Amino acid sequence: MVLRMALRAAVLAACCMPASGAKLAAASPLQSIAIPAYFYPSYPDPLWTQMEHAVPTVSFAVMNPANGAGPMPDSNYTSQIAHTRAAGIKVLGYVYSSYATRDPALLKTDIDNYYAWYGVDGIFIDEADDTCANEPYYADLDTYVKAKGGLGLTVINPGNPTLECYAAAADIILDFEGSWAQYQTWMPTGWESGYDSSRFWHLIYATSEADVPQAVLLSQQRNAGFVYVTTDQLPNPWDTLPSPTYWSTELSYVQPTSGGCSPPVAKPKLQIRGIDTPDADDSLKFSGTFVLAGTPSIDPVTNGLRFVIADGSGTTVDVTIAAGAYSGDPGSGWTGSSGKWKYQDRTAIAASGITKAQLKSKSDGVSTTVSFRIFGSAGSYPVNPAQLPLSGAVLLEPTTPTTNCATATFAADGCLPTGTTTGVRCK
Q1: What is the DSSP string of 65-103?
Q2: What span, in angstroms and rounded, lies between the C-alpha atoms of 157 and 172?
Q3: How high is the mean pLDDT of the chain?
Q4: Strands 200-205 and 172-179
């Protein structure tokens, strides 16, 4: 990292995909926050508590007692890490590799101590080299961590785009660490698009609150499944967390179901079937009504429509129905205007499996009532029946999760599996 400090089942859906070296189709921008938590926990620590309250949007954090595990266990860390892991955040231990020049035996001693003292979920390897000649150095450490059992998550941090030879050397590659000014012109090398977004993490510091939305959206476009944006600056941008308003904005853009869309969906209904098979054969029905203040401009022909669904592990479905007028058979797009629109996809393979959608709006001059119905078939909507209830968000402006949107929240007894693992129904 910029600073060295002295101081796979359910979690894989919320946190990460295992590294296998095999290419995967690029995923939708399902994303969570991962934090280099380089602040000492005076247990119970308010900053660690702030992270815990953001579960599942915050999926993992990196601890760093003393440029590694340190010479002995620290009771404050012991208590805090146990509490944070119980809250649902995975914790990784920090080690540094000095660009593959540090004796791996020293790293393995640190790894042993992290597991023995703190029961960590994996290891973060800083100062990673990015030349293929040193890939075996990191692959060996990955094997060593996984032999410890548990999640065995590994992250390497070259801090910049690296070569594809490293895809099998760790579960996650931190391929950007820098300022917002740098990130605006930074681009991945290209091979990353052939892998799931859960393989990549971006850290962006020196970012104003006004720039948080653009920073998060750029990270999603650049296939980063993990992101953290902060206003903090060098020499240590990771020694605190953002202010409440900054933090709330970041949470909302990373996962819209985290509360940024405050209007509730009335009488929401959601049904997903076929989730027990890995093929794209799931079906979906999602409907409800919500009220927006004033008379906002609503036009799915221009803006499209986005919906997000989360189970207890976090966002699992994030679909944007594209803007554009219907192009004629066989085609896809929107028809209608003046408060009533219809989307249809009559192509051989509907985008994201969405075949139909209906959107209606009616204003009395003071508020606007919006109703929606979304239908999907032959799609992939991987919610987990063991992680009920579900929640959802509907966004009339797909790239603005805090504007003209609403949240569907289902009661704990309002969601039930349909069959053992075949589907779920919520109302």
Answers
A1: SSSSS-SS--HHHHHHHHHHHHTT-EEEEEEE-TTTTS-
A2: 9
A3: 90
A4: parallel
